[in-house]
Specification:
This protein is an alpha+beta fold. Helices cover 26% and strands 41% of the residues. The protein is built from two helices and seven strands. The termini are far apart. The model is unreliable at 9-16 (pLDDT under 50).
Length: 116
């Protein structure tokens, strides 16, 4: 019973995480994202917030979110997946550092992002 309560509390606190949002001067960027051998296409645009959309190799959307005031909000009716939130934060780090390629591990998955 205690484990269930801890899991519920952890999911509440982790779901409410705030992110430090950098102020980047971009209009739209595209990345090829390799997650454990599966290829995805990530689009990032900036208006009044950062908009993220990631698609699998068949063109099906996997996640579509906007980052405003340090919190993510879904823009489409897609399953909630915090993995993509962390991936989107990593993509902002790539843009902030002006990198073209970045390799890292996220949730035990090897990820390689390349700007296209």
């Amino acid at each position: 019973m205690q484990k269930i309560i801890l899991i519920i509390l952890a999911s509440i606190f982790l779901g409410c995480a705030k992110y430090q949002v950098p102020n980047l001067d971009i209009t739209q960027k595209r990345f090829s994202v390799d997650i454990d051998g599966a290829i995805y296409l990530l689009y990032i645009s900036k208006n009044d917030g950062y908009y993220f959309a990631i698609f699998d190799s068949f063109g099906a959307p996997q996640s579509s979110k906007v980052l405003k005031n340090g919190t993510f909000k879904s823009t489409k009716f897609l399953p909630r997946n915090s993995f993509y939130d962390q991936l989107f934060i990593e993509s902002l780090d790539i843009l902030q550092k002006n990198l073209k390629v970045k390799e890292f591990i996220l949730d035990n998955k090897k990820i390689r992002m390349v700007e296209i």
